[in-house]
Amino acid sequence: MFVVVGVSGGIAAYKTVQVVRALVTNGHEVHVVPTEDALRFVGTTTWEAISRHPVTTSVHDDVAEVRHVALGTQADLVIVAPATANTLAKMAAGISDNLLGVTLLATTAPVVVAPAMHTAMWDHAATQANIATLRERGIRIVGPADGPLTGGDSGPGRMVEPDEIVAAALAAAGAVDVVGAPASDLADLRVAVSTGGTREPIDPVRYLGNRSSGKQGVAVALAAADRGAYVHLVAAHVEGTVLDRALHHPRIAVERALTAAEMDASMRAAAGEADVVVMAAAVADFSVPEVSDVKIRKEDGTLTLDLIENPDILAGLVRDRRPAQTLVGFAAETAADEAELRERGIRKRARKGVDLLAVNRVGWTQGFESGENAVLFVDASDEVTARASGTKRAVADALWDAVLRLR
Ligand code: C5P
């Protein structure tokens, strides 16, 4: 494929070197189009060496070959990574005062954009309006991820990891050679995935919830769909824009289920048609049996809530499993060390009766909300059969590798 990689002026440009490298290694012809500002972070020499093609920022080079239009018209795929708030604004307005702007106007190829900026800039109404405009035009937005930012702050704004950008871009272009995994190894598999944290109502304005962001479950759904599966994604509460890519994926159907009871009904129905079921949702273990119709008022300084235990959805799915169906659970454990985590995982896998359990450590500062994860996989051999750490997408791909080994 003829791939144009646009780079705008953010520190994350150093990570885009990996994107270009991965595409070149996979046999694609890659042309890098940096903005002037991008060259302050990574210079022409690096881009030329990695892409093996000349690099220019100017529309006035190679005028005889009409290079400024040729790049856009020849492209099968255009990636912009990192996309700064400024470049996103220019894209939304169709401004073409540099080679990247001209290329983006001249192309009809799929465009995949990986934003990177400070959280305050990402959250600004102007940036959000520009993102909405770009989405409406069919441009795929991947990320930004949530995590530490340059300068010590933390929040949404980090560019997603290179492997995720490459996977999203190749999927958008309909290519099959996603780096690290053949894109079609789950072809035609029917998959049901749950994600997010359920919320159990107390009264019209309050609920019992948990800190699950939904990122890991959504990554599991996206990985499966990018590898060819048809995915029914049942989502409880998820953070911010976490569901966005799934909502636009041609092989993912998203259904919302906000309480444990709704999740139970939705997952039973979804599992009835699935070859593989992954319960990645954080389901409330307890709910309030009598939800108040009116907002509970503070009267005597204390409030006692009676809670009843919710049915274990996964246990029900295991009981009613279809022939040859593979069932996967997640377990978040507050273990002291890896040995304890392993022991707990092995015991829980057996108790739940699932084929595979992904076990991760959680604590006040670990496991939730971040873009990264570290898990052990335990199967019916009562051993840790695989480990995975890194982006939640990398963990998701490792999960599907483990599922394939079992099937
Ligand atoms: O027992 P524990 O809650 O740690 O088990 C976690 C696994 O069980 C997850 O896969 C979760 O989605 C699932 N679960 C469930 N129904 C519940 C509680 C948890 O299906 N009520």
TrEMBL record:
Reactions that this protein is recorded to catalyse: (R)-4'-phosphopantothenate + L-cysteine + CTP = N-[(R)-4-phosphopantothenoyl]-L-cysteine + CMP + diphosphate + H(+); N-[(R)-4-phosphopantothenoyl]-L-cysteine + H(+) = (R)-4'-phosphopantetheine + CO2
Region (Phosphopantothenoylcysteine decarboxylase) location: 1-190
Keywords tagged on the record: Decarboxylase, Flavoprotein, FMN, Ligase, Lyase, Magnesium, Metal-binding, Multifunctional enzyme
Any Pfam family matching the protein: Flavoprotein
UniProt pathway annotation: Cofactor biosynthesis; coenzyme A biosynthesis; CoA from (R)-pantothenate: step 3/5; Cofactor biosynthesis; coenzyme A biosynthesis; CoA from (R)-pantothenate: step 2/5
EC code: 4.1.1.36, 6.3.2.5
Record-linked InterPro entries: CoaB-like_sf (IPR035929), CoaBC (IPR005252), DNA/pantothenate-metab_flavo_C (IPR007085), Flavin_trans-like (IPR036551), Flavoprotein (IPR003382)
Region listing for Phosphopantothenate--cysteine ligase, in residue ranges: 191-407
Essential cofactor(s): Mg(2+); FMN
Ranges for domain Flavoprotein: 3-170
Cofactor note: Binds 1 FMN per subunit.
Residues binding CTP, per UniProt: D285, K295, P311, D312, I313, L314, F330, K348, K352
Keyword presence, Manganese: no
One annotated Gene Ontology cellular component of this protein: phosphopantothenoylcysteine decarboxylase complex
Top-level lineage group: Bacteria
GO BP term (any one): pantothenate catabolic process
GO molecular function, one term: FMN binding
RNA-binding listed as a keyword: no
Residues of the DNA/pantothenate metabolism flavoprotein C-terminal domain: 186-404
PANTHER family reported for this sequence: HOMO-OLIGOMERIC FLAVIN CONTAINING CYS DECARBOXYLASE FAMILY (PTHR14359), PHOSPHOPANTOTHENOYLCYSTEINE DECARBOXYLASE (PTHR14359:SF6)
Family: In the C-terminal section; belongs to the PPC synthetase family. In the N-terminal section; belongs to the HFCD (homo-oligomeric flavin containing Cys decarboxylase) superfamily.
Database matches in HAMAP family: CoaBC
Biological role stated in the UniProt entry: Catalyzes two sequential steps in the biosynthesis of coenzyme A. In the first step cysteine is conjugated to 4'-phosphopantothenate to form 4-phosphopantothenoylcysteine. In the second step the latter compound is decarboxylated to form 4'-phosphopantotheine.
Protein known as: Coenzyme A biosynthesis bifunctional protein CoaBC
